[in-house]
Amino acid sequence: MTQSPRHRWPHWPLGRSIGAVLLVMIALFAIWGPKLVPGDPFAQSLMASLAGPDAGAPFGHDHLGRSLWHRLAAALRLSPLIALAAVATAAMAGLGLGMLAAACGGWTERALVILADALMALPGLLLVLIVLAIMPGTATGFWAGLSLVLWVEFFRLTRASARSVLASPAVQAARLLGFGWAYIFRTHLWPEMAPMMLTTAAFGTATAIMAIAALGFVSVGMTAPTPELGLMMVELLPYWREAPLALLTPVLASFALLLGLTLLAGGHRA
Predict the structure, then answer these.
(1) How many domains, the chain?
(2) CA–CA dist 261, 166 (Å, integer)
(3) How far is CA 89 from the centre of its chain?
(4) What pLDDT, in 10s, does the model give residues 179-188?
């Protein structure tokens, strides 16, 4: 009997759907916002300092007369791109090393576990700060530091999951039949690990964006005049009485971005 098309669609929990819609709306604004209202996020006009919205700056202007619309769109491209690059790097490293530890065992596994535990003993932001001291105020520094922090979680989850799957009768049978590691990974390992990896990736992306904004807020992240969410907040904080809506713009954007990622991750977990 042919299954109706309605039954072929996966069931999406409400929270995951809301998170996905939020992220799509933010991505559309970040990509198409500057095309709908052309402008330069770095262009200054002191005559428009803290001015309200107009046709060229629908979200108003900051203290240097720069368009908050264009700066916010640029910031919503920068932080997620750094976070996604760091998560992708961490996921590949954690997945590879976790598989290696589970497959080899012995001293290889012990050495990798000791390395992961040693990194986990240090605060994540401290590791990022150490890397940023070498490469200050650069996207590469954030990418390297966040990757160094995030790969541990992927490693631990992959190792724990792969150990049980590799010991299962199905995998033992596949190895006896001569199937290679690529087939075992694609058929047995990845289907078991994929939901967990996607959840970890979504939480890792939210964590990375929060870390970038937090370091920007304490002025040790991106340097001015780079449009970045935390840096925008700290620049506008002294003017919160004169232009509270200007300060709320990056705050609400950060909240929506983190809420979308958290809801999406929670939906995967469900």
Answers:
(1) 1
(2) 31
(3) 11
(4) 888 888 888 8
